[in-house]
Amino acid sequence: MRARIAVLASGGGSNLQAILDHFDRLGDARAGDVVLVASDRADAGALNRAVGRGLPAVVLQAAARPGGAPLDALLHDHRIDLVVLAGYLRLVPAEVVARFRGRMVNVHPALLPAFGGAGMYGQRVHHAVLEAGVRVTGVTAHFVDEVYDRGRIIAQWPVPVFPRDDAGTLAARVLRVEHILYPRVVAAVAAGRATLDNCALIDPRVPVDARPAFTLLAHEESRLAENIDLALGC
Ligand code: GRF
Prior knowledge:
By secondary structure, the chain is α/β, with parallel strands linked by helices. The longest helix is centred in the C-terminal third of the chain and has 24 residues, at 167-190. It contains 8 helices and 7 strands, in the order E-H-E-H-E-H-E-H-E-H-E-E-H-H-H. It has a 7-stranded mixed beta sheet with strand order 3-2-1-4-5-6-7, covered by helices on one side. It has helices at residues 14-26, 45-52, 69-77, 94-99, 123-132, 167-190, 216-219, 221-231; strands at 3-8, 32-39, 57-59, 82-85, 104-108, 136-143, 153-160. The chain folds into 2 domains: 1-100, Formyl transferase, N-terminal domain (Rossmann fold); 106-234, 3-Layer(aba) Sandwich (Rossmann fold). 5-O-phosphono-beta-D-ribofuranosylamine binds next to helix 1, strand 5 and helix 6.
């Protein structure tokens, strides 16, 4: 039984598109299907992409009262198993996050916990990376919990910062790596390969042999080689 996936997006939807394309390539081997796209913005390009695929494309009404009733009911009505945040700029109501614990993921255009948290999204992230003078940024895919950008990390991938980068060139290089990493994370979570319990927990307080060992990149090493030039911005 394939997982029924909802994608929440506020912007152009290039990550949504990368996920749709990756699942098309997986064909019958895919473990899920995107069956719903929702946005807090009626003009989101992600909604147009959904319509182009014949998928339900729903504008989330600002909840008349806090609590996300419209989102909760929508996910229930569409029998959603996995929620994928792909540039969704609203905080998901706590009761929805609680209901989808271990079944809601997000992608962030930096190496969390660095350059994350409330207000850190889009170009703001890349400006902060450049201002900090770091030489490496990257992409983080993680489970969602009640605090922005804090949930258990599923996978990360490094992206170099070049001396002549501005926020635009850096964002473009990071986005290309997002489009490689995120669909594979979504596929792994949909297939039950990456779970809240088995994602590599590198916690010195936990005895080494008691630490979960799953790392997506360990399974995808073959892809690292073929795609590392992408991360290097060649
Ligand atoms: C991406 O940069 C992602 O890291 C961030 O929001 C952006 C979404 O872009 N969470 P798109 O709408 O998928 O093109």
